Structures are given as C-alpha cells and as structure tokens.
Amino acid sequence: MTKKNTVNFESSLKKLEEIVSKLEDGDISLEDSVKSFEEGIGLVKECQKQLSDAELKVKKLLESGDTVDLDS
C-alpha cells in the first residue's frame, strides 16, 4: 500500500468518524443528515475496498513467500 493510500484511508476514516458524531448529535436538519449519511456510505465503501486490496496483497505475500510490489 502506498503512502497515498494510507493517508487517504486514514483521512477517510477520520471524516467518517466526524460524520457519525454529527449524526449522533442530531443537531442537523433531515436534509443534511441524509447528505451526510450518503457521504458516509461512500467513505465506507472506499475504506472497505482499500482494506480488501491490502488483505489480498498480504495473502499473496504469505502464500508465495515472494516479494510483492505493495506500491501497485
């Protein structure tokens, strides 16, 4: 995983936590809640994809014992 992906994952996770906190507070309108929820779903999907990609790379490393280019 490249540094860019790590930063992207970390920043996405932080933004997702902020959205959850905002929704839990309940101090926003229904329209803003729906928009925030929609944004959160997108962030969750992106984070899941990045985690799946990382898991696949780790499995390849463990199975082959060879080096795998983690920056690809």
From TrEMBL:
Subcellular location: Cytoplasm
EC number(s) reported in the record: 3.1.11.6
GO biological process, alphabetically ordered: DNA catabolic process
Assigned protein family: Belongs to the XseB family.
GO CC terms, sorted: cytosol; exodeoxyribonuclease VII complex
Domain of life, source organism: Bacteria
Database matches in Gene3D superfamilies: Exonuclease VII, small subunit
Organism: SAR86 cluster bacterium SAR86E
Signal sequence, renumbered to the chain: none
Listed GO MF terms: exodeoxyribonuclease VII activity
Enzyme class: hydrolase
Keywords per UniProt: Cytoplasm, Exonuclease, Hydrolase, Nuclease
Catalyzed reactions: Exonucleolytic cleavage in either 5'- to 3'- or 3'- to 5'-direction to yield nucleoside 5'-phosphates
Main location: cytoplasm
Subunit field text: Heterooligomer composed of large and small subunits.
UniProt name for this protein: Exodeoxyribonuclease 7 small subunit
InterPro entries assigned: Exonuc_VII_S, Exonuc_VII_ssu_sf
Function statement: Bidirectionally degrades single-stranded DNA into large acid-insoluble oligonucleotides, which are then degraded further into small acid-soluble oligonucleotides.
